Amino acid sequence: MGRYVARRLLLTIPVLLGASFLIFAMVYALPGDPIRALGGDRPLSPAVVAELRERFHLDEPLWAQYWEYLKGLFQGDLGTDFRGRPVLDTIERTLPVTIRLTIVAVVFEAVIGLIAGVLAGIRRNSFFDNLVLVSTTLIVSIPILVLAFVAQLLFGLKLGWFPIAGTREGWYSYLLPGLVLASGSLAYVARLTRTSVAENLRADYVRTARAKGLSNRTVIVRHTLRNSLIPVVTFIGADIGTLLGGAIVTESVFNLPGIGREVFDSVRAQEGAVVVGIVTLMVFFFIFFNLVVDVLYAVLDPRIRYD
Amino acid sequence: MTRPDLSPSAPARPAAGNPLLEVDDLHVEFRTRSGVVHAVNGVSYSLSEGETLAILGESGSGKSVSAQAIMGILDTPPAVIAGGGIWFEGRDLLQQTPDEQRRVRGPGISMIFQDALSSLNPVYSVGYQIGEMFRAHRGTSKKEARQRAVELMDRVRIPAAASRVDDYPHQFSGGMRQRVMIAMAIALDPKVLIADEPTTALDVTVQAQVMDLLKDLQRDTGMGLVLITHDLGVVNEVADNVAVMYAGEIVERGTVDDVFTDPAHPYTDGLMSSVPQVEAKGGRLQPIAGQPPNLAAIPSGCPFHPRCPRRRLGAAAAPGRECATDVPPLRLVVPGREAACHYSEEVLGV
């Protein structure tokens, strides 16, 4: 197992390099001049423009620009944006917001999704099961943008239960955006859990557990849920990697200064170094949590071995 | 659920000898959207201490369903026990509370299944799953339960039991897995062991080892063994008595020697002729014509009559013994032998 993890971690290096180059090339290919846009209504003097183009190697070919970027990277320097602010500082400022939002979303997704799914799976075709089926269908069919505004309007403005925007009220500010962000995955977790529990309840080993005279509780908890939760836990693990990539819509609607919104703004401003830095980090999170999921799989299911 | 009016305080039912387990006119139905499937239609049998009763039948003859009804592990719904009684040590299990029924499973009646790989939970070690019997029924500590599991694995002759107790089911061969199932089933010294096709999924050589093991365990403990199988060879080797099932009913019953040498029911006769014989090498096998009946639409009269080579229909039949209209009851044909055929005497040739 240790060797497997080490090999997978080593493999992330070429993946990250490739990803960063692709992102770099895409930002390079964007039309427009980022330096001219920097000045806004008041055009910068040609001398300043020339000086900035020189400093950021903007007149050099793609390969050379990327090489300059890599040279910095190997010295632990992620570069700066066009205003001279280090990219690392930007990440340090925005990442905690996204991490908090992810934690809140995952807690919602796991707790509500699992409970709803387990109860629906055990009482298949009951009223509760149908309620879960209908409400999850409804949630996944509404675009998150609509969901976000409705939640903001209803719970923020009309009922006044939650702050509408910003992070001033600490963790409390994250509850509503967290719930909105989690909604899709929550519905998926509920469905996945329901199916998995219902399927496992029909398994031969559950029949064996009953034939052993185990209590109903033991049959359900130890011999059904334990097995049913394997796919769910792995889905949630992989979802953390996705959520840490930031949620552009949720962060924008609720005015949370996380990395999703930052990367969106940076793409529009053609801030190459910022975009490459943050997106590569997102790729890393994604790869890392997928590795965690694979390891978790082997821990949860003894049939899976990687060595 | 409708049950016959049997008061739970009734004394032990009168029966020959002292049966451990008595199944009395058991009816099981599956009530599905597309209709009612009559899986078990009035099955009765009894089992005494140390006896091996083989229940022989094709797939869909109701042999496994009746066993699951005894264990109380039918999926209800769709399955419903529509009538009858299951008497164990003088009490009708069907009249007991679910919790009382549960306490019988394991120390009273225990069961092993056909496919040990799917019947064992893949995420727990075999030691854990065997030890669970002690922990659930006797409150044994985790450590002691593991120790008892090692002893049981030794008893069912799993080599190097002490080092394999923490292994998982997928790490064992098919025969060893079935031994694990057996170890689990005999953990609490049950009075009755129901083995549902215990060797069907195994190689022939391993089959013999597992059957030998079951016989040895039975000799040591005196438990009653209900052996559900479609394998005539297995029945011949290990069973004392045999009940042949067809379309959810017992059609013939007697000692294995009697039934096998001289069947009294045309279905049993057909089964015997369909077995390959060493002496008749090169000859063609004689299958039973037709298909087993659809249990949602069992033929009228004798359920076997559409496939029966000896059926007598219309004017050819004796009065009250028309095969397509008159249901043949299971009746004593000669001492020690019952069969559900109007013309058993002819089949027997007596």
Q: Kindly state the mean pLDDT of chain B as a whole number? A: 85
Shape of chain B: globular
- Specify the CATH class of the largest domain in chain B: Alpha Beta
The tally of helices of chain B reads 12
Helix-and-strand structural type of chain B: alpha/beta
C-alpha geometry of chain A: flat
Short descriptors:
heterodimer; A: 307 residues; mainly alpha; MetI-like fold; flat; B: 350 residues; alpha/beta; Rossmann fold; 2 domains; four-stranded antiparallel sheet; 12 helices; disordered N terminus
Structure described in brief:
The complex is a heterodimer of chains A (307) and B (350). Chain A is mainly α and 307 residues long. Chain A has a domain at 87-300: MetI-like (MetI-like fold), CATH 1.10.3720.10.
Describe the protein's architecture and organization:
The complex is a heterodimer of chains A (about 300) and B (about 350). Chain A has helices spanning about 1-30, 35-40, 45-55, 60-75, 85-120, 125-140, 145-160, 175-200, 205-210, 215-245, 250-255, 260-270, 270-300. With about 300 residues, chain A is mainly α. Chain A has a domain at about 85-300: MetI-like fold, CATH 1.10.3720. The N and C termini of chain A lie close together (about 5 Å). In chain B, helix 4 runs parallel beside helix 7 and helix 5 (about 140-155) packs across helix 7. Chain B is about 30% helix and about 25% strand. Chain B has helices at about 65-70, 100-105, 115-120, 125-140, 140-155, 160-165, 175-185, 205-220, 230-240, 255-260, 265-275, 345-350, and strands spanning about 20-30, 35-50, 50-55, 80-90, 90, 110, 190-195, 225-230, 240-245, 250-255, 330-335, 335-340. The radius of gyration of chain B is 21 Å and the shape is globular. With about 350 residues, chain B is an alpha/beta fold. Chain B folds into 2 domains: about 20-240, 3-Layer(aba) Sandwich (Rossmann fold), CATH 3.40.50.300; about 260-275 and about 285-350, no CATH class. In chain B, the strands form 2 sheets. Chain B has an 8-stranded mixed sheet, with helices on both faces. In chain B, strands 2-1-4-5 form a 4-stranded antiparallel sheet, covered by helices on one side. The interface between A and B is medium-sized, with 23 and 30 residues.
